[in-house]
Specification:
18 strands, 4-stranded antiparallel sheet, signal, 16 helices, Tyrosinase/Hemocyanin, 588 residues, alpha+beta, 2 domains
Amino acid sequence: MRTDTTLIASLLAGLTAAWPAGNAVTATNATLEKSSSASQETQYLAQLSSQVQSLRAQLEAQTQACAKSSAAQLSIPTALAAEQSAGGSTSAVQTFGSVHQSSTISAIGVSLSAQSTSTNSQDGLAYTTQASYPYAHSSNATATDGASDYPFLAGSASLRPNDRLVKSTGSAPVLTTSAIVISGNSVTLNATTTPVSSSLATSTTSTANAVHTGIPGLSDFTDAQIESGEAWKNVSSLALQRMQQDASNRTDQTCSFDSASVRTEFRSMSNADRKSFTDAILCLQDLPPQMMTDSESTSYPGVKNRHDEFVATHINMTYNIHMTADFLAWHRNYIYEFEQDLKNQCGYTGNLPYWDWSRDAQALNESELFNGDKFSMGSNGQYVADRSYTYLGTQNINFPPGTGGGCVYSGPFSNYTTNMGPIDSPYDNNVNNTFDYNPRCLVRDLNNFFSSQYNTYRNVTDLVLGETAIGNFQSLMQGYLDDNPFGVHGGGHWLGGGPSQLEDFHSSPNDPLFFLHHANIDRIWTVWQYLDVANRQSAIEGTSTLDNSPASAEMTLSDTIDFGFVSSPQIFGDLIDNLAGPYCYRYD
């Protein structure tokens, strides 16, 4: 009996160490120490055996309650999106048998605090778990479930997508290991609760919408993340999330985030949708002009079809839509009207795709867009050998020939004919009069010289995160800053090399790639806007003439913008929001 007593006393001592002071275990153990007679030992052994079983049950019940408490506290934040930006808390109360549990999640400063208290109504015992998660970066943490050895890195007020924060909290009788993982538009909180004195372990996982209130900067990402496109992916995801939040807060729900049409990257489209898109472009070439009058036709001899009206409009307005206040808004509406014509006049049921040229920046020839099959955007041009370097005086650049130089030879545009231009090509093949009829094949000369310098993920990320003012943003995009003669916009036009339709400043819409290129430019502007929508969506700067030459007045959002043969004039302020005015679209 002495041996059994020792074992039970040892067990009780272990339970005493694991259980809060002042409970039944401590009291019973004190009685045991005072006992001396064998009869008392027998009596107490029976009592203790019963109490041990009861205490085990209580311990496991309390552990279950703590586990459920963790689950509840992690599933609470349905309103977390609003809470994180303004502070506040959200709570829930639940009952599990005799255990009454209350949980609260709070957003305080730059921390997310989660607390749960479980109270057993039978004996009044209470156990509280609490954890605080700073919005800190832990990029080097590996995604090992249950890991608890990654310290928080202090001093940051923003939590980046795909960061993983891990922390252990609590003490005997339970240890709770919690992790926050940010991925895309959601925050996932994982908790594992393990009692010290039992093999019982419970894991819970919950996901809620994540809201990042800060504006990320270049210093938030490593060079490797920027160069690989991971940083741009995260920034784009953050902007999309903020667009969704902004759309949900609008009084006018004519266009909602969910009802908006979605523009995707060309390669994300099915083969059938790609072919439907290129077929619709060919259809526009078969349609007669829609807005040019008979009396105007003598001034525009090169306008032979509906697509030519788009080209002529761009030619006509070149010096009023580049390096101007309305550069971005004008081109937004221009490609939107093109998209509408594809749908309304040619039966296209999809949306305008964009070309993420940063994916191809180091190897344009290997891009699926130019493989020349019937589901592509057409091939490169036929290779033309023995060509020399080309000098561009304005940019003071001497560049090598590309990998084509001749007519597009396969794919949907192998028999494509353009009717106007070039106007301002460095290759001495310009027309004598601006709108002369000059039928020619579609020429391409894919050239990594430009893409690898001006259209990389580094270029895009630097642009969006490095420029906070609209003036600098649109100037750097167009390449009018001293250290960047092309920008992502100008670089994108020269991806087609030279000579090509795409490189001509005036008549570049001759190549259908123009519209995919400018859809990507519009996407970049949209990302930039929604990173700080309150301050950026209505931001404009500049006049209505290229580089203010000749001098003209500063533009305002109430100005009327001309669209020539493309559409009726539009009010500037109606063209700045992709979810309002004539628009209801977003990018994936």
